[in-house]
Structure formats: C-alpha cells, structure tokens
Amino acid sequence: MQSMDELFKGRHFEREVIVLCVRWYLRFKLSLRDLVEMMAERGLALAHTTIMRWVQRFVPEFEKRWNRFARKAGRSWRVDETYVKIRGKWTYLYRAVDRDGQTVDFRLSANRDVKAAKAFFRKALETQGRPPVSITLDGYAASHRAVRELPAQSSRWKDTRLRSSKYLNNMIEQDHRGVKSRINPMLGFKVFDRAAVTIAGVELLHRVRKGQFNLGRLHVRGQAAPAIWNAVLSA
C-alpha cells in the first residue's frame, strides 16, 4: 500500500483539500459545481471535472485504508436490490445489511438474475470472511434460486438457511434510502465503471456514519471528521 506522500505525490492541491472535496461529495447532497463554488469562497479555483477525477482516483484507495479497521457484520443477512440509472438505463444495486442494520456488502450489476445474485453473495462472503447463518429475501425468484444453488458450488454455504419475509426485509429497504438519497441528486451516471466507483464511495461514507469501523487504536474518539480521516489514511 502506498504511503500518504506517494498517494498524493504530484497533485496540484494539498491532500487535505482533495480528501475534503471527495468526502463532502460522497456524504452530502452536493453537486460537483456546488463544491466548486464552496472552494472558490475559500480562494481555491477548481473545475468540477477535477473533483470528479479525484473521486475516481481516490475512492478505491480510501476503501482499502478504511477496510483495515472494518468490523464484521452479523450473520443474519437481509438482502435486496434497488435501482440505479446509468445513461438512461436501469441497473441494479445488490445490497445487504445484518439484523442491526450494519452494511454487509453491495454490488452494482447490469443485470438482475441468478448469475448476478450469486456474484453478489460470493463478494459478500469474501468481504465478511464467513457465511451467514441465514439470508432473508423478498419474493424475487432469481435470488431464491441463487441461494439454493450456492451450497453445490461451495460447502461454506451448506448451513445457511434461506428465509422469505417482506417484514424482515423492511430494514434493508429503509437502509437503501441512506444511499439513494445521495445517489439521486447526482442526476444519473454516464459510465458503468465510474458509477460503481462513486457508489462504492457513497457506501463507504454510509458505513462510516453508521460506525462500522474500530478506530480505537488510532485514539481519535471525539475528534472532528478531518482528524479522523487523516488518522485513518495515514495509519
């Protein structure tokens, strides 16, 4: 993993400005041009495309650094898909939370089918490092079929129970709102890969807000957000 100096080497702007712009864009309902105006009030001349490039460049690096401190989610997963428009076409954001509302994982997919559902479950298993005790779904048949077929592909899924409950899945549907409330003001994406990176950043900030990271050893309890981010990225 690159050091902080290496990560931001050659950038025209200081790393504090870059981190602030990326963090604010992903966390708050701000457009790129809103951020340009806000930075101009601080004497910084930025183009909105510069901030867009920062998001694409640094979100994967921020994820790596924050994930070193991630707590594992619980083993009762609530899984659902929501919709994201890319170049005028609906795509599908697979998401899961545990029984306490902590984010398990997410995956953007061009399709909503058995193959896409399996890809999401495999990604979630890799992220968490352990299979769930139960997976709760709504009535969508492809996701049910994917869960039923997983044990044949890996014995790690053999003890996972499948449940179907609209009531229990209210939690994941409510959690979608925290992500969609930030995605919707972005007014649609143009490129799938860029959308995936941006959504990963939104999901990261959503997890940070929910306190899904163990930062005790960094001694940042009670610190302001800039200090916390600097500590995480520097660790």
UniProtKB/TrEMBL annotation:
Residues 75-212 form the DDE domain. It comes from the Bacteria. Pfam families: DDE_Tnp_IS240. Keywords: DNA recombination, DNA-binding, Transposition. This is IS6 family transposase. It comes from Variovorax humicola.
